[in-house]
Amino acid sequence: MPGNPVIWIVDTSVFLNVLDVPQFNQDRGEVLANFESRINNGDTFLLPITTVIETGNHIARINNGNQRQDFAQKFSDQVLASIEGESPWKPLEYPEAEDVKKWLADFPNTAQAGVGLGDHIIIKQWKEQCSKYPAYLVKIWSLDIHLQGYECNH
Q1: Bridge pairing between strands 151-152 and 137-141
Q2: What is the pTM assigned to this prediction?
Q3: Which parts of the chain register pLDDT below 70?
Q4: Is 117 contained in some domain?
């Protein structure tokens, strides 16, 4: 029996597996099974700008030019469908200058702890969603250990 719906902030590691990007798809079966289960539960999937940029960067580095083109198109189609409200992903609000200023203000401390800017932003956006949706369980969905375990409002 499914639990209450969850809001998931989707990390690059998950999006790359869903898109089946070579060299970044080793967990695809598990990711797709979790994705299907979470869709059936009525969960919401938010696609942060960090995930969009990092995924695009990985795709641009695919060695095979034909594959690079194919995956770039698949990626573009998925992100555009998200923006148009025609996919299971919803774009997370794109940052304003004030958001970026806030993120950068404490980035030096985060960087000192070994956390990169992309992950720092995902964590900040997770915190914002926790405040914005106090009645929902909000989690980060990542295969990267350092981004796992982020959940609030439970």
Answers
A1: antiparallel
A2: 0.92
A3: 1-3
A4: yes
